[in-house]
Structure formats: structure tokens, C-alpha cells
Write a structure and sequence with these properties.
Number of helices of chain A: 19
Radius of gyration of chain A: 30 Å
Strand order of the largest sheet of chain B: 1-10-9-4-3-2
Number of strands of chain B: 10
Strand content of chain A: under 5%
Mean pLDDT of chain A: 92
Distance between the termini of chain A: 94 Å
Low-confidence stretches of chain B: none
Distance between the termini of chain B: 68 Å
Number of domains of chain B: 2
Structural class of chain B: alpha+beta
Oligomer: heterodimer
Strand content of chain B: 25-35%
CATH architecture of the largest domain in chain A: Up-down Bundle
Number of strands of chain A: 2
CATH topology of the largest domain in chain A: Cytochrome Bc1 Complex, Chain C
Low-confidence stretches of chain A: 485-490
Number of domains of chain A: 2
Helix content of chain A: 55-70%
CATH class of the largest domain in chain A: Mainly Alpha
Number of helices of chain B: 1
Largest sheet of chain B: 6 strands, antiparallel
CATH class of the largest domain in chain B: Mainly Beta
Structural class of chain A: mainly alpha
Mean pLDDT of chain B: 92
Order of helices and strands of chain B: HEEEEEEEEEE
Strand order of the largest sheet of chain A: 1-2
Chain lengths: 490, 163
């Protein structure tokens, strides 16, 4: 009891001087619409909890990390292998960043579907879009601080995209890299941006975002038919909240606190189970067997850049992306009134479904990267035994050509190999002998021409082998089954 | 007259602060955008004796970035592909794919360069064979001086500034 009295008197002493409790009480206990004390409303505070976790773990990492190109990699290895809890803090920071992007996206989707961006909360949404962009900026710069091969070539990709800007492209690249090429000055720049610039902006914007939430009130649960009107909205909201509101603390805050606890616990668990990410390989650009891949937040963009028709790429990067961001920012100004309920906004719901499907499909493709050649297929993959059994010497020579000329970097055989080009199993049922020769020599349909790289005898052998690639008893295309081949296959 | 004197002081304060902010901004902006200002981005670099590149072959060559700083570490080294066509005829390609800058790899058997990122493929002469690259590989300017192969380079080749 003595301890409690002592604490109470300390609190009283502080309150008498700061007046903080008195000043903050109205904000903490302000009334919110009863139905908004809902599990759907916890994503914003959960994002904030993750941001605080990122700050705490980020400061810890900065205690050891050396933002110099010659030592960054070693300091990350030191964090992983030697510093007490170093591996776990790196893991927390990595999984925390993944979770932050994810939970923030959920928050954004919820706000969009609940119509919370409409009058008078337009600015809250706009600030939120900047918070989202800033978080993606943190994700990209953070991935660079991992100063490994993915970071090095990720910078190359970023610079190559920036370079497509007309007139100022080269200047942007130089400012971004801190010089003419990716090197020591580049890492220092990205460190400053990741640790000072964007976090400072984020903290300021979060302050503004929260201020706006307090000032304008938590968005009420949307009801079909309750249309937002600039003249009547504020008064109706005030009336509703005073008639049937609950204090934010503790009624709504209870669920927020559970949400915050759950996301942080999930991050703690993921970090413990899966550990830190990388660093993968020294950032030495003379190591040519690198296969760079971005972290998951940019996988969909990575996939898009492989799948777009080449001539549309620059337009989509330089016009499409800024336009998409502008559209996000302008959304509350374009559609600031009217129905809030998703039940009456089919286009909005369809849009969300479409965007989610597109992004997840692209990200999945980004993981699989079917467009990337399997760079070691020529040495790592054996020709399936079934495809060499009973073949003539000439056909076997052709199988060797397939192996030696790295055909399987792009074409699979027996399910192994690249998927840039079509699988070669059964190719004889699709192309005639003449078509095969033409395709090999002249290429086309996204295949390089091998005319200069293959001797006539090699082409002959290769095509002879390809002609045997068809299911038993199925004749090659365009010709009745030659009796000899049919007999052998049976 | 006191009001005008106060007004003057207010305007003076505002003006002085604006001037101070503008003056402070000059070195800050200049520093941030310094890399744009008159950086050559190119220098002649010695790749090594011509004899180390056999005729008819394409080999990896490594050089030190001419604009390197002491703390560049492994990133101070740059690689390029050297193709020797004849006694004095060369082609030197940047390792960066013309699509988005990933490192292309040379496959001597199929005589192709392939990119691991988005599947760009180039012929041995650097011209585009397939995939998303909008052009062939970036090529260095080269010279042979006293049996040594020299190239002109030093900046990240992109569509805005080839080698």
C-alpha cells in the first residue's frame, strides 16, 4: 500500500505540473460510434504498433550496422552470427516490415470499402496514401541496406527504371546512386534516407493522421442508404455519437490493444521460427551467377516488368504508376460524397477484387519466374532415361546437342528445365521436320536463331532427336506414323 | 511612430530569415544534387594485355571503377564481357542487361548472353535475340595502346546514359 501511495503522489506531482492527464483525457475518452468498436477497425492501430516495433529494432540494428559499402556485409554477418540477439533483431525487423506492409494494406482496404475516405475525412486518406508510399519507400531502401547481391542488382533495376524518364533520366540516376555507378556513396545515401529522411516524414505524417482521426471522429459503420452529404454529415455524426457513442478508451481501445498484441506476437513468432533474411551473397558485381529477386512487396512489379509487352513498359512505368498514385490521392476528391456502404458500391468492391487478384497473381508468378532461364540446366539436368532408350546414334547425338547448347535453360524435358519456351516433350506432334529446322535456325516467337551457332550436322542430329519426342503410338504431325518408329516404340 | 517601427522589425525579421534560409539552402541543394553536376562518368580504363583475350572467344574482364572511393569494398570492381573478333577487332559489352540492368551471363556453347531476371537473351555480337530488352547490350568504346586493351567507361549503363 505504501508503494501505491508513493506512486500516486509522484503521479499527482507530475500532473500538477504537466496537466497532461487533464489535457489528454478528452482525446482518450472521446466518444466513438458504438458499432465501430469492431474487429474491422483494429488494422490502423496494429500498423502503428508494428511501426513502433520497427523503430525499436531499427535503432538496435543501427548500433552495430556499418553503413559503408566495404563493411556493411560483414557487419550483417556479425549481427547474424555473433552479436547477442543480433539474428533475432534482424529477423524481427524483416518480419516486422513484411507485417507492416501487409497490415497497412488491410487498413487501407478496410478504409476504402467502409467509405471512410469520404467527406470530411478526405485529408486523412490523402495523408494515409503518403504514409503508404513512405512505407514502401522504407521497404525498398531497407532491402538495399541488406547490401547483398539482391541489393546491388535491385539498385540496378531501380536505376534502370529511373533512367527511362525523358531528359532528366540520367540526372535522377546520378542523384539516386550518389555518383555515376552503384558504389560506396550509394549505400550511404540509402542509409540516410532509410534512417533519417523517411522515418522523420512518417512520424510527422502519423501525427497528422492521428490528429485528423481525433478531430474528425472515427468513421461510423456504413449503412446502405445513409448517404454522405456535405451539408448534413457533420451534424448527423455529432448527434449519433452523443446519442449512441461509447468512449474510445476503454471500449474501442480494448480490441485495438488485442490487435496490436496479436500482430506483434505473430511477428515475434515468425522471426523466431524463420529467422532473418540474408544477406545473400557478397555484393560483388563481378560474380556473374547472381539471380536477383526482390522482397515480396515488389515481386508483382518484378513480374509485371517481365510480362508486359516491351513497348508498353516505359509508358506504364512513367505514366501508369504516377497516374495510379494520383488516382489514389484524388479518390476522396472525386468520390467524396454519396454511399459509404460497400453493399451499394459494386464498382469499388469489384475494383478491390480485381486489384487483389492482379497483385497476388503477379506476385506468385514473380516467385515462380517462368520467364527466367534456368541458368545451370546445361550442366545440372540429365536427359531423362526414357528419351535416350532405343534411339539411333544420330538421335542420341541430337540429345547431346540439346544438352550442350543449353536448350533446356528455356525448354523443359521430362518436367525439368526452363519454362520460357514450350516443353519439348511431344514437340514432334506439334511441328513437322521442316518446321523444326526452320525454328532452330531462324528462331522467332521469342526464340533466338541458332543458325550461326549450329553446324548442319548438329541441326540434323538435333531435329532427328526432336522428332522422336512424342507419346507412344501418336504419329508426328503432318505425316502418317513411319512404320519403323511405331514398331520401335511399341 | 511605434506601429511602423514594429512593422519594420517584423518585416526585417521575416526578410532576414528568408535570406538566411535561401543561403543555407544553396549548399544543401548543391550537395544533394552534386553527383549530377559535371561528373564525367567516363574515363579510359586498362583491361589488360590483348593476348589474354583469345581470338574468337568471349571472356569476362574485371576492372576497378575509375571513380572509386576508399570504402567501395567489393562494389568498386566492375565486370564486362570482352569478345575478340580478330587481331585488332574487339567488342566489349557491359555486364548489365539493357532491360533493367541485371548481370547477363555468357554461354559459350550456345553463343548467347542470357539474363537471369526477366529472360533477356542476346547474340554473341550483343544484338538482342529475344525477351524484353529494348536494344542490344551496351558496348564500350575501346582502344588498343601498346598491346593493351583500353575501354572508356565508369558509369552504370542505362537507357539514359549508355556506358
Amino acid at each position: 500500500m505504501a508503494l501505491r501511495d508513493a506512486l500516486r503522489s509522484v503521479a499527482g506531482w507530475l500532473e500538477a505540473r504537466t496537466g497532461l492527464a487533464e489535457g489528454l483525457a478528452p482525446a482518450v475518452t472521446h466518444p466513438v460510434p458504438r458499432r465501430t468498436a469492431s474487429w474491422w477497425y483494429v488494422f490502423g492501430s496494429a500498423t502503428l504498433a508494428l511501426f513502433m516495433l520497427q523503430i525499436a529494432t531499427g535503432i538496435c540494428l543501427a548500433l552495430v550496422y556499418v553503413p559503408a559499402a566495404d563493411q556493411a556485409y560483414d557487419s550483417l554477418r556479425y549481427l547474424n552470427d555473433q552479436a547477442a540477439f543480433g539474428w533475432y533483431l534482424r529477423a524481427l525487423h524483416f518480419w516486422g516490415s513484411n507485417a507492416m506492409v501487409l497490415v497497412m494494406t488491410l487498413h487501407m482496404l478496410q478504409v476504402f470499402l467502409w467509405g471512410a475516405y469520404k467527406f470530411p475525412r478526405e485529408l486523412t486518406w490523402i495523408v494515409g496514401v503518403f504514409l503508404f508510399l513512405g512505407t514502401l519507400g522504407m521497404a525498398f531502401t531497407g532491402q538495399i541496406l541488406r547490401w547483398d547481391q539482391d541489393a546491388y542488382w535491385g539498385l540496378g533495376i531501380g536505376a534502370s527504371i529511373a533512367a527511362r524518364a525523358p531528359v532528366v533520366g540520367s540526372a535522377i540516376v546520378h542523384v539516386m546512386l550518389g555518383g555515376p555507378i552503384i558504389a560506396g556513396r550509394t549505400l550511404s545515401r540509402f542509409f540516410a534516407v532509410h534512417v533519417f529522411l523517411i522515418p522523420g516524414l512518417l512520424i510527422a505524417l502519423i501525427g497528422l493522421h492521428l490528429w485528423l482521426v481525433l478531430r474528425l471522429g472515427v468513421n461510423e459503420w456504413p449503412m446502405p442508404g445513409r448517404v454522405v452529404d456535405r451539408e448534413t454529415y457533420r451534424k448527423r455524426y455529432e448527434d449519433d455519437v452523443h446519442r449512441d457513442g461509447v468512449p474510445f478508451f476503454p471500449v474501442a481501445a480494448r480490441k485495438d490493444m488485442v490487435g496490436m498484441g496479436v500482430v506483434v506476437l505473430v511477428v515475434l513468432a515468425c522471426a523466431a521460427v524463420f529467422g532473418p533474411n540474408g544477406p545473400h551473397g557478397v555484393p560483388d558485381p563481378t560474380i556473374t551467377d547472381a539471380s536477383p529477386r526482390p522482397d515480396f512487396y515488389f515481386l508483382s512489379l518484378f513480374a509485371l516488368l517481365a510480362l508486359l509487352p516491351p513497348w508498353t513498359e516505359t509508358v506504364i512505368l512513367l505514366v501508369g504508376m504516377p497516374l495510379a498514385i494520383a488516382l489514389l490521392l484524388a479518390l476522396p476528391l472525386i468520390a467524396g460524397t454519396g454511399e459509404k456502404s460497400w453493399r451499394r458500391r459494386p464498382v469499388a468492391v469489384l475494383g478491390v477484387v480485381l486489384i487483389l487478384l492482379t497483385v497476388t497473381t503477379l506476385a506468385t508468378l514473380g516467385v515462380l519466374s517462368p520467364w527466367s532461364p534456368v541458368m545451370d540446366a546445361g550442366t545440372a539436368l540429365a536427359t531423362p532415361v526414357a528419351y535416350v532408350q532405343g534411339r539411333t546414334p544420330l538421335e542420341l547425338q541430337g540429345a547431346l546437342v540439346i544438352q550442350n547448347k543449353q536448350c533446356r535453360n528455356c525448354h523443359s524435358l521430362g518436367g525439368e528445365g526452363g519454362s520460357r519456351g514450350p516443353a519439348l516433350d511431344g514437340v514432334a506432334t506439334r511441328l513437322t521436320r521442316d518446321q523444326l529446322v526452320r525454328q532452330v535456325l531462324q528462331g522467332g516467337g521469342n526464340m533466338p536463331a541458332y543458325g550461326k551457332n549450329l553446324a548442319p550436322a548438329e541441326v540434323n542430329a538435333l531435329v532427328a532427336f526432336l522428332e522422336t519426342l512424342r507419346p507412344a503410338r501418336q504419329p508426328p504431325v503432318g505425316a502418317p506414323a513411319p512404320p519403323r518408329a511405331a514398331a520401335r516404340r511399341d | 511612430m511605434p506601429p511602423s517601427r514594429r512593422g519594420f522589425l517584423f518585416r526585417l525579421g521575416l526578410g532576414l530569415s528568408a535570406v538566411a534560409a535561401a543561403l543555407a539552402g544553396i549548399p544543401i541543394i548543391g550537395f544533394i544534387f552534386g553527383p549530377v553536376r559535371r561528373h564525367p562518368g567516363q574515363a579510359w580504363i586498362k583491361l589488360g594485355p590483348v593476348a589474354t583475350f583469345p581470338e574468337g572467344q568471349t571472356r569476362l574482364a574485371i576492372y576497378d571503377n575509375p571513380f572509386r572511393v576508399a570504402w567501395d569494398g567489393p562494389t568498386g570492381k566492375i565486370a564486362c564481357w570482352v569478345r575478340r573478333i580478330g587481331a585488332e577487332r574487339f567488342q566489349v559489352f557491359a555486364i548489365n542487361c539493357a532491360h533493367l540492368g541485371c548481370p547477363v551471363r555468357w554461354f559459350p556453347q550456345s553463343r548467347l548472353f542470357m539474363c537471369p531476371c526477366h529472360g533477356g537473351v542476346y547474340y554473341e555480337d550483343g544484338s538482342r535475340a529475344s525477351g524484353p530488352p529494348p536494344r542490344g547490350l551496351f558496348e564500350y568504346e575501346y582502344e588498343i595502346r601498346e598491346h593493351q586493351l583500353w575501354v572508356r567507361g565508369g558509369q552504370l549503363p542505362t537507357l539514359a546514359g549508355p556506358v
